[in-house]
Amino acid sequence: MSAPTVLVDSLLDEEIHRFDLDCGMPVLLHLKPGFVKKFAVLGVNFGSVDRSFVDRATDREVRMPEGVAHFLEHKLFETPEGDAFDRFSRHGASANASTSFRTTSFFFTCSSGFPASLRTLLRLVTRPHLTDRGIEKERGIIAQEIRMYEDSPDWRCFIHLVRGLFVRHPVRTDITGTVDSIEGIDKTALETCLRNFYDPANLCLVVSGDLDPEAVAAQVRREMRGFGGGGPVRRVPEREPRRVECTRTEEALAVVRPKLLLGYKDRAVDIRGEELQRRDLLTGILLALMFGSSSERYRRLYETGAIDDSFYPSYAGDEDFGFVTLGGECDDPERMHSMLLREIRAFRKDGFDTEDFGRIIHKMMGRFVRSLDSQESTAFHLLSSVFKGMDPFRVPVAIRTLTPDDVMERYEQLFGSRNHCTSIVRPG
Amino acid sequence: MTRRGPDETVKKYRIAGGVQLIVYPTDKFKTTLTNILLHRPLDEGTSAAALVPYVLRRGTRRRPDLAAISRHLEMLFGAGLDVDVLRFGERQILSFRLDSVQDRYLLMGGRGLFRQGLSLLRDILADPVLVDGRFGEEVVAQERLNLRRFVDRMVDDKGRFAFERCVGHMCEGEPYARFEYGEAAAIDGLTAEAVTKSWHEVIERSALEVYVVGNLPPQEVREQVTEAFGGIRSGRGRNGIPSIVRTRPERVRRVRETADVVQARLVVGFRTEIGYDHPLAVALTVMNAIFGGSPSSRLFHNVREAHSLAYYCSSTVDQAKGVAFVQAGIDGANAERVESLVLESLDEIRAARIELSELRTAKEQLKAGIRAMTDSPARIAGWLQESRAAGGRMSVPRLMERIARVRRSDIARAAQSLTLDTVYLLAGDA
Q1: Which listed residue, A183, A337, B248, B251, has the most CB atoms within 10 A of its CB?
Q2: B417 CB near a chain A CB, below 8 Å?
Q3: pLDDT band at residue B3 under the 50/70/90 scheme
Q4: What is the predicted pLDDT for the residue at B101?
Q5: Which residue of A has its CA nearest to B264?
Q6: What's the rounded Cα separation, in Å, for the pair B146 and B151?
Q7: Are A381 and A105 in contact (CB under 8 A)?
Q8: What is the nearest CA distance from A427 to chain B, expressed in angstroms?
């Protein structure tokens, strides 16, 4: 194991220790003196988008059914001694897991019995226990979960938008899969994913709390001994064209008011590290200047009733995809649609003044400091920084290097292409 | 990185005008949380009062519109301002919350953020934009519409909707049945005059509490809060708004309603006479953890895991009212089976068939939750409020001790106190 790196930010009064295990797994420890709670998250660089890859056992390209990462997340809680939830509970920890487009995360919080729960957490991946019977039972539970999402108009509106924006990229697929697609998930499929993605080099552990760094490192090293070492994941990327799949999608659902989401497909993709961090920070500033609640535009639209507090600009993205969504509830989707297009165009001409820019910078600095009070959000920030090759504490420095010109350049990247799609859910 | 800061001992002050100040000094956080709560009963004025925070947030004399307030918050390094309406037992609580970065962590200079934040909160509460002594008609019309839509939108969240419908049927005629955000028809009829009147009443009559969690000397907080809020009169004695506790439903009410849902929602409502001041209050909390309050609970196992009958199945207890609910997302065809499993699970606990390991796990989880509470400013403020409402005698160590003392027989008695009242099912047309 290499010597630990200690990142100290004396101004922010934060300290992070990083160890890289011989097996290739990075371990980050965020020290929180005085905190009772301990939080640990084991991240796997494996999400719903990772469906096509070259299997390291057969050297053949395989394509997995939709929802396989999420299914595996559920299934890893099964252990030979029963449900891992129970083990965590018995140690006084509360555990959960989640799957996103890019990452599977297993996490727990506790105030005592940390080593026992950390062992349980690591064993979820080092000692998987997949049985045909367990897989069959899980199918029923996941089908219920899928049906619950089907009842959510917001989720429907969002997923239709993503499918409209992307032609081939697997971000189009439901994270949970569909009731049909999960029928195609069996033990072999899950084992293939485990073998290829659940490898130390593709994992990262982040822990947070009032903990002894050396004790944590020693335990992790012990638990991970002899695990994995199969080499890097060989993903088969989909070549995503710049164009969108369609410009409009509509569905009738049991909603009280129509919902509209307008999405723009990002051109700034296939980047990592500092460049990616810069892209994400600039996106935040740009959206705050364009449609934030302090903007003149927002005030005007809100006061004329064109938007209400369900209106929310947001951005989702990773190394190889990105998109902006704008919208919310409205009475007349056609009107909202043309209004949004008009306002987006007008921004190029209207721009913003330096005072606006300065204020948003203040806000972003403060928000970064505030986020450090949450062990969970800091840990997830650290995890995604590792996977995306970013320096987590560079955020305040990076913010200060940004200029108004950078923001306008980002505007052109995002909105200049007119690669947009509108998703509407109407009462029906 | 060693810290020797203020001890985490709660300080309470009554300041001029009857404002209650509760300070929790701690150096664990980079932020200071200030939460102002106004308590009033759930009654026919609930809809008007629910609109008050949203209208107040729209502008102050100094910062007359939303954008001006947002710009100010941005200059305060992205301070967060949230207004909300809460239900606690049969009370409606209007909440105004601000959290801001402590001066010492401002990376670009800047000072006095706490004082500036208090001053903003004070202006929002007591110095709004008025036209001829009233809130602006347009502002009221917009916020009325927003609130109305918010209330309507609840229909889209099927789990929440089913829960509120069950409460509505079960507690019909009791204040508890009132939705804290108001009722659609009443909201639509609110005039600027009515909302202004409600604001005056809230300021003059409701108990006003200020909670501060952060790294500031309590004396200094007291001075600054006195400076900001000393001029505001606050009602007395409203903190002890009692709840109507009904323990013996005459018969079990069964309600089935239909909606366009794929997944059916089952809500089972119970009554209990065990309130905060009951000797079995803590036993009921432990009982809930075993019954359905955690992923290691009976309901999670029997319904979700063992029978694959639900995506979620959990229980909650509201001791401020003396009610408990089980909520499950299920396939409508299985409703009866799920209901039987829920009641069987409860019967097991009533018969004290509880394993020691299960009891230990439940207690550990509860204690862990309480300990972890001290790591979040918002949860500390919530705990301070709840323990104050529960009589203010409950300290963290005392609660821990009481949890440790709970025995199987106490849990069985707490479970026996649950009386089935209403079984509610929201299902698709089938």
Answers
A1: A337
A2: no
A3: very low
A4: 93
A5: A148
A6: 9
A7: no
A8: 11
Per-residue pLDDT at B241: 62
Q: Is the pLDDT of residue A344 over 60?
A: yes
| CA dist., res. A221 & res. A241, Å (int) | 43
Pairing of strands A14-20, A26-31: antiparallel
Using a CB-CB cut-off of 8 Å, the residues of chain B touching A153 are 156
**Of B70, B360, B374, which is closest to A36 when you measure between CB atoms?**
B374
pLDDT, position B128 = 97
Mean pLDDT calculated for residue range B47-65: 97
Nearest to B273 by CA among B324, B230, B316, B328: B324
**Among residues 311-330 of chain A, which lie with CB inside 8 Å of chain B?**
329
Q: Which of A92, A153, A309 sits opposite B368 (nearest CB)?
A: A92
For the stretch A11-67, pLDDT in tens is 788 899 999 998 889 999 999 988 989 999 999 999 999 999 999 999 999 999 999
DSSP H stretches of helix in B32-65: 46-56
ipTM: 0.81
Residue B211's pLDDT band (cuts 50, 70, 90):
very high
How far apart, in whole angstroms, are the C-alpha atoms of residue B374 and residue B26?
Answer: 9
pLDDT value, residue A408: 97
For residue A314, which of A323, A322, A304, A325 has the smallest C-alpha distance? A325
**How far is it, in rounded angstroms, from Cα B346 to Cα B333?**
22
CA–CA dist B422, B309 (Å, integer): 21
Q: Which of A75, A144, A356 to mutate to test the interface with B (most CBs of B within 10 A)?
A: A144
Helix (H) or strand (E) holding B126: helix B113-126
How far does A235 lie from chain B, in Å, by closest CA? 32
DSSP string for residues in B237-302: SGGG---------SS-EEEEEE-S-SSEEEEEEEE----TTSTTHHHHHHHHHHHTSSTTSHHIII
Q: How confident is the model at residue B390 (pLDDT cuts 50, 70, 90)?
A: confident
Chain A neighbors of B145, CB-CB under 8 A: 305, 308
Calpha distance A318→A182 (Å, rounded): 25
Residues of A annotated catalytic, as ranges: 73
Contacts of B357 (CB under 8 A, 6+ apart): A90
CB-based contact A255:B156 (threshold 8 Å): yes
Please give the pLDDT value at position A89: 86
Q: What residue of A is the nearest CA neighbor of B99? A: A370
Q: How far is CA A405 from CA A410, A411, A413, B409, in A?
A: 9, 10, 13, 70
CA angle A382/A385/A388 to nearest 5° reads 150
CB A60: neighbour CB atoms within 10 A? Answer: 8
Q: Do A89 and B296 touch (CB under 8 A)?
A: yes
Whether residues B107 and A375 touch (CB distance < 8 A) is answered with: no
The rounded distance, in Å, linking the Cα atoms of B194 and A215 is 63
Contact at CB, B79 and A89, closer than 8 angstroms: no
**Hunting for tokens 């009462």 — which residue is that?**
A427
pTM: 0.83
Mutation target among B263, B366, B426 for the A interface, most CBs of A within 10 A: B263
Shortest Cα–Cα distance, B83 to chain A (Å): 13
Residue among B269, B261, B347, B355 at smallest CA distance from B311: B261
Report the alpha-carbon distance of residue B142 to residue A112 in Å, rounded: 49
Burial label, A260 (beta-carbon count in 10 A; 0-12, 13-18, 19+):
buried
Which residues numbered 141-200 in A keep a CB inside 8 Å of some CB on B?
A: 141, 144-145, 147-148, 150-154
Q: How buried is residue B254: exposed, middle or buried, by Cβ count under 10 Å (0-12/13-18/19+)?
A: exposed
